[in-house]
Write a structure and sequence with these properties.
416 residues; mainly alpha; Hypothetical protein af1432; 2 domains
Length: 416
């Protein structure tokens, strides 16, 4: 049963992996598009058509909307299969990274399969679907409809899809347990049950006590995988920032404990980007003022997540201050000078080093000498002089040559 708990807690860990593809296919804010798919029976053609008409190119001009609809029609079922595959595969990959076991990974990988074989990503059916995956599939749909219409609506939808989406034995169990009001009351206090980040809770249970350094590193790496999966524009960014930060910390002669701490803070520094729509992160043109406001909010979101996550709370301030400047002109707090720790200053430089040196889908990375010229120009205003002095063109050249991991959508996206 612990494996089921871990799989349930991590079932959405792979959701960021298909965010970019959803934006490519539909346009507009992907959060709303992704949420809406769960309030429809997406296997029915009429529901598919209504969904596409509602969200493809929403807010675009007529011609642009028509192109989005034509692309979806051309891809057909491949589009939905790909989106589920991206989500499930990345979630299973994260479970494996956290060493939660094969059963947890298998449950996450198959949680969107249906009893009659009409689900995704593999189209397996019946008892070929792991039992825990069957339970997750039922639970996630129930939770959506419970939020829409309460317990009666959740049970009604489950029974209507019994034998197609869901194992009839499970829906019969639901009929019995669904009469228990305590079941539904527990949903209202679900956040209190886990008591921490859904990534940290299963790892804490697996290790039967406080996490050791290796466990904390796995959690931080899992966070980075989720963050960097959101957009090919920043694929592998968190890992590379961690490498820059580690190299600078060593040049500054920090202790091994301090270096480990900075590495973890670097891996989680962009957690708040998960709240920024890909329509902003990947916008081809200039951002509007309100879009810049959303971008500037992401460090505050990072801080809010980390401060509530046991084991990571003490990293919150430094990780969230990676856009602050030593002269106080940065964001989100506008702090500077001695109010910024050395760790925060290292992260600020490391973040910009990677932003300038890394290849992006829309441009190649800058030459190391150009990167250093920009960094040195900001010494004493944007960046800590001590940290800038620790940088060098050879450091940038060496780390820029480290191969980046492919963004998950690049592995499966069909031609469009």
């Amino acid at each position: 049963r612990l494996d089921l708990l871990y799989a349930l807690l991590l079932k959405d860990a792979g959701c960021s992996a298909n965010a970019s593809r959803v934006y490519q296919l539909f346009g507009g804010p992907e959060h709303e598009v992704k949420r809406a798919v769960w309030v429809r029976d997406w296997r029915k053609f009429t529901q598919q058509a209504a969904y596409a008409l509602a969200f493809a190119g929403r807010g675009f001009g007529f011609t642009a909307r028509l192109k989005k609809l034509a692309r979806l029609a051309r891809l057909g079922p491949r589009a939905s299969r790909e989106l589920f595959q991206l989500r499930c595969a990345r979630g299973a990959e994260i479970a494996n990274l956290m060493e939660l076991g094969a059963d947890v990974a298998a449950a996450i990988r198959s949680m969107d399969e249906h009893w009659d074989g009409g689900g995704h990503p593999e189209g397996i059916a019946g008892d070929s679907i792991p039992l825990y995956a069957q339970i997750i599939g039922l639970a996630q749909v129930m939770e959506i409809y419970w939020g829409i219409g309460g317990p009666q609506e959740a049970v009604r939808v489950a029974h209507r899809r019994s034998g197609t989406w869901f194992n009839p034995k499970l829906t019969r169990v639901l009929s019995t347990r669904g009469r228990d009001g305590a079941l539904w009351r527990r949903l209202e206090t679900a956040d209190e049950v886990t008591g921490s980040s859904p990534l940290l809770a299963p790892a804490r249970a697996v290790h039967d006590g406080p996490l050791d350094d290796a466990g904390m590193d796995r959690i931080a790496s899992a966070y980075a995988m989720i963050i960097d999966g959101k957009s090919p524009f920043t694929a592998d960014h968190s890992r590379r920032v961690s490498q820059y930060a580690s190299a600078l910390a060593r040049r500054l002669e920090l202790t091994e404990a301090e270096i480990s701490r900075i590495q973890r803070a670097a891996l989680v520094h962009d957690l708040g980007k998960l709240a920024v729509p890909n329509s902003i992160l990947e916008k081809p043109g200039s951002l509007e003022d309100h879009e810049w406001d959303r971008i500037r909010e992401h460090p505050a979101v990072t801080h809010d997540i980390l401060r509530r996550t046991p084991g990571f709370a003490e990293l919150a301030f430094d990780a969230a201050n990676h856009h602050e400047h030593v002269d106080g002109t940065g964001y989100h707090l506008g702090v500077g000078g001695e109010d910024l720790s050395l760790s925060a200053r290292v992260l600020a430089v490391s973040d910009v080093l990677d932003a300038l040196a890394a290849d992006r889908p829309y441009r190649t990375g800058m030459e190391p000498e150009t990167v250093m010229s920009i960094i040195e120009e900001g010494a004493g205003t944007h960046f800590c002089t001590q940290c800038v002095d620790a940088c060098s063109a050879d450091l940038v050249a060496n780390l820029a040559e480290v191969p980046a991991a492919a963004h998950p959508s690049a592995r499966t996206s069909p031609p469009v």
